[in-house]
Structures are given as C-alpha cells and as structure tokens.
Amino acid sequence: MRASIIREILKVSSKPGIISFAGGLPAPETFPLKKFEQAMIEALRRDGTKALQYMVTEGFRPLKEYLCGWLRKQRIQGTPEQMLMTHGSQQGLELLGKIFINPGDSVLVEDPTYLGAIQSFNTFETKYVTVPMDARGMSPEAVEKALQRRPQVKFIYVVPTFHNPAGSTMTLERRQALIKIARRRRIPILEDDPYGLLRFKGKPLPSLYALAKGRGVVYMSTFSKLLSPGIRLGYILADQEIIDQLVLAKQPTDLQTNTLIQYAVYHYCKHGYLEKHLPLIIKDYAHRAQVMEEAIRRYFPRQVTFIEPEGGMFFWCTLPENINAGEVFKKALKKGVAFVDGSVFFANGGGKNTMRLNFTNCTDAAIRSGIQKLGGVLEDFIQGPGSR
Ligand code: PMP
C-alpha cells in the first residue's frame, strides 16, 4: 500500500495562503448545520438508547425504505433487502473488491478513473484493463476491443455521470451500448454515482442501473455530496446474492455502519430536508462552475483544452503533450495555487499532461485569482518564461 497522493497534496495545499483546487471537498457553506442538528437531537430524544446501540450489518431498515422510495423517483428500482448501508461509497468499493477480486484478477476501468477506487482495488492485487474516455465517457467500441484482448475481467467499474476526475458524462447511446456489451459477456458493471443528482446543466440521463433495470449492475451512492462527507454514509444496491456476500465482507471490517448517523439521516430525510436542500447545492455549484469556466477561458493559454462539466465538482484540463503537469504543480504551488496532477488517476500510468481542478471549495475571488496565477504558470511552460 502507498500513501494516497491526493491526501499528501491536501496536506500541502491546506496551508494558509494557498488557493487549492486540489481536494474533492464539497462547499462547507452548503452543509445543513441547523437541520442536521435537529435530526441528531430527534434521533437521541425520540429513539433514545436504540440510536446508540449496535444494529444489524445490513443497515437501518426505515432509512433503506426511504432510500428505495427516493431512488424509485430516479427509476432505480430496488428493495431494502437489496441494499447495504456503508461507511461512504469508499467502503462500498473496498467491500466490492473483497468479494469480487482474487490476487491477479483484472478489472476494467476508465482511463482516468477515481483514485479511491484504484486504491481500494489495489489492496486485492488487481490488474487493470484501462479504456480511454473523452467528454462523452468511455467509448463502447474501445471497451469491446479491450475485452477481446482481455476477456476475463471480474467487473467493469464506471462513474458515468459527472466523472471524478474527468467531469464528463457518458451519453445515453454509450450507456446503452455498454450495458449490451457487459450483458453479452456476463460481466457485472459497478456503477459509482456520488454526483448524479448534482446536475446544473443539460438534460438528466438515466443511470446504468435504471437502464438495465438492475440486471447485471451494482449501484453505489452516498450522502457525502448531498449532505456531508464527514458523516461517512453511503449505500450499495445490488442483487440480494451480492448483498449477502457484502454483508459477510463487512462484518470483520466494522460489524455495521454507525447507528446514530443512520437514525439522524433518516429523520433528516423523512422531513423532506434532503429534497429541499438539493437545489441549494446545485445553484451554488452552477455558479462556482461558471466562475471557473469564465476564468479558464480568460486566463489559460488556448493550447490547454478542458471538459465542461454539466454537474459534479471538477474541471479536467489537458495540456500540450510535452508539458508535465507534475512540474506545473511544483511551480504553481510556489505561486500559491494547488491542483491535482492528473496522472494519479491513470491506473496503468500515463496522463502526464492532465490536471484536475475542483471548484466547490473556493470563493469566487479565490477561483478567479487562482486560475489567473495558474494561467501565468501554464503560459510560462508553453511559451517559455517571460513570454508575457
Ligand atoms: N466514488 C467517487 C467517484 C468519488 O468521487 C468519491 C468521493 N470523492 C467516492 C466514491 C467516495 O465517496 P464517500 O465519501 O461516499 O466515501
């Protein structure tokens, strides 16, 4: 195991005076402090000692019932028996790795993909089949080609909506084609969807799980980006057979997910607060994304291309081939700006000329000033120092 590069970057970039586009932190201004306080009090007062007791590994049933109803509105059909509550989606990834992967097995992932997934799967000595992606997600033709060469993958891991790190969203046609390929080859799809509800542009798209009516797709989501990441609450929806295995995998890890948090989130949701809160986050992120996009257009050299996100939390930039984002990072940090060198998201290496920029954890002024400074550094790399 190696230290997460992002966590290391976070240590550096959280120093005072640094403008950081590095983390994947939601805007703390959007955390519903008052309503969540009320929900915690309700859990303690109304549920009493039950809220402080051990509970079943599967999770708090009333919360799972609420979530199934909430998901049904997104055409994601499932029963509470098909759901496992987890300590964030990150735990979901680890548990899925535990039940699916033996040392030396391969999994198919997008290139780039979510770093936390690589870290989780690495624990099981995984090999990767990587498939390049663009603004429209992973191309089904490329998936098919990759599987012809390496047919034995254990699953396909994909973040189809508002990708981390690439900000991209897989088109409907590509979603349908991917499901077809996976079905024909009987390969399960793991759909990781922490950002799906955070759409601020364009038309909503059905999840892979909804399109496949659940067949052959494991769906994962989390409260991290809708309520708070610190409460560490997520869930997995899958065939009951898979859930049964996951329950066994979870028991030695932590017995169960935090009881008090599950009770509190249940009260929070039951009052309709989650539904009411969501538009506020979307409005906030739409604004910050626009500020960052305008700043990028204004201050970055035109040789730098980027994917315009329709939701989620990230901009993904590609520099000319010969520019190394790791070197840019060192210079940028000296000027007081941090981002993530995109190469860390490539499971088999590569992507040296890419960068991930987060826009949800800075004020408008910091976004403008940080992008201006970063633009200056990029200009020096592309045109040579002193060109401006
Ligand atoms: N999957 C993806 C694609 C993510 O971006 C994140 C959070 N950065 C996670 C999973 C983990 O989320 P959680 O806080 O629910 O563990």
What does the model show?
- The chain has 388 residues and is of the alpha/beta class.
- The chain has helices at residues 5-13, 33-47, 61-72, 88-100, 115-122, 140-149, 172-184, 208-211, 240-254, 259-270, 273-299, 325-334, 364-383, and strands at 19-20, 83-86, 106-111, 127-134, 137-138, 153-158, 189-192, 217-222, 234-237, 305-307, 314-318, 337-338, 340-341, 354-358.
- The protein has 13 helices and 14 strands.
- It has an eight-stranded mixed β-sheet with strand order 2-9-8-7-6-3-4-5, sandwiched between helices. The protein has a four-stranded antiparallel β-sheet with strand order 10-11-14-13, covered by helices on one side.
- The model has no long low-confidence stretch (mean pLDDT 96).
- 4'-deoxy-4'-aminopyridoxal-5'-phosphate is lined by residues 24, 88-90, 114, 116, 159, 164, 192, 194, 222, 224, 229, 234.
CATH fold-level assignment of the largest domain: Aspartate Aminotransferase, domain 2
Assign the CATH class of the largest domain: Alpha Beta
* Unreliable runs: none
Using the alpha-carbon principal axes, give the shape.
Answer: globular
Strand content: 15-25%
Assign the structural class, choosing from mainly alpha, mainly beta, alpha/beta, alpha+beta, or little secondary structure: alpha/beta
Oligomeric state of the chains? single chain
Name of the CATH superfamily of the largest domain: Type I PLP-dependent aspartate aminotransferase-like (Major domain)
